[in-house]
Design brief:
single chain, 0% strand
Length: 317
């Protein structure tokens, strides 16, 4: 497990090193220059919507697996996990922390871990589906990749079908049992709706980054490119989310004739906006630390009165 974590970090670092060697520091400096307060405010608003919809998706999945989460704690936990994902190496440690904590609080650690895993996989599956539709239907330079996109979507669907059918009806494995529950029509539709809302909000943040950089391109091209970037960004081979996202954005913008350097700048601005928009998670962590310290103090018994030197002296005259 430790070797796998190091490989993820090295993968992200390698991509960043190649980008620095290819483009220099210019796109990174430009990204800091064009990031404005209006862009930060827009990112905060859009990310709050993404957090609400993602927390709802988590609640739907967790409730279906028998470990429900209340609305308020779900939003707070999701903000906390996003902040940790954006600040710690790997980009998934926040989700791991959320899963373990939820499982322990619910008294069923395996179910808590599975709830977070399926919630994240469900969101990524919808994101892949939207990216495939965008490449297929929207006029953009990415259309030649439509057959590959369809092949990926079919492969994901076939794997889900096989896992759902795995095992006999009397004693199915937990994967098959979970998928049967989560692919039930009402549950699946709510997960899909929540995931579409979250993806739309992250797409909005990407378009804000495009506007901040000043890239002029048809909306169809930007939407198709952004959805592909969001899919690649979810690959857990990065340094707190940095690495593959910058590489694929530079490639996609170059392929679309918008300039690889401009794409890299857009990706850096998007990364900055996405990181800043998770700062409410830091507030959640701070509040939990203060509350935990208060609880520990309340649980500590007061020192016995006989331990006071003054009382001892008075007692013995």
């Amino acid at each position: 497990m430790r070797a796998r974590s190091w490989l993820r970090l090295l993968g992200g670092a390698l991509v960043l090193a190649v980008l620095l060697w290819r483009f220099g520091t210019g796109p990174f400096v430009e990204a800091w220059r064009v990031t404005t307060w209006w862009a930060v405010l827009a990112a905060l608003v859009l990310t709050s919507f993404a957090t609400l919809t993602s927390a709802w998706r988590w609640r739907v999945v967790a409730g279906r697996l028998g470990v429900p989460v209340a609305p308020g704690p779900a939003v707070a936990a999701y903000y906390r996990s996003q902040f940790l994902n954006a600040t710690l190496p790997g980009g998934i440690l926040g989700d791991a922390h959320r899963a373990v904590r939820h499982g322990r609080e619910a008294g069923d650690l395996p179910a808590g871990l599975r709830a977070t895993l399926w919630e994240r996989l469900g969101g990524q599956a919808v994101q892949v589906g939207l990216a495939v539709l965008a490449v297929l239907l929207l006029p953009s330079p990415l259309r030649p990749f439509a057959p590959l996109a369809v092949a990926v979507a079919v492969a994901v669907g076939m794997v889900a079908w096989w896992l759902r059918r795995r095992g006999d009806a009397a004693r199915p494995g937990f994967v098959a049992a979970d998928l049967r529950a989560l692919l039930e029509r009402r549950t699946a539709s709510r997960v899909a709706l929540a995931s579409a809302g979250s993806t739309a909000a992250h797409l909005g943040v990407f378009l804000v980054a495009v506007l901040a950089v000043g890239v002029a391109a048809p909306l169809t091209v930007l939407v198709a490119t952004a959805l592909v970037v969001l899919v690649v960004s979810s690959v857990p081979v990065s340094i707190a989310g940095w690495g593959p996202r910058e590489g694929v954005t530079a490639w996609a913008f170059g392929f679309a004739g918008l300039g690889s350097a401009a794409g890299l700048t857009v990706s850096v601005v998007y990364g900055v906006l996405a990181a800043v928009a998770t700062l409410p998670g830091a507030v959640v962590l701070g509040a939990e630390a203060v509350r935990g310290r208060g609880l520990r103090r309340a649980a500590t018994p007061p020192a016995p009165l006989t331990s006071s030197p003054v009382l001892e002296e008075a007692r013995h005259g």
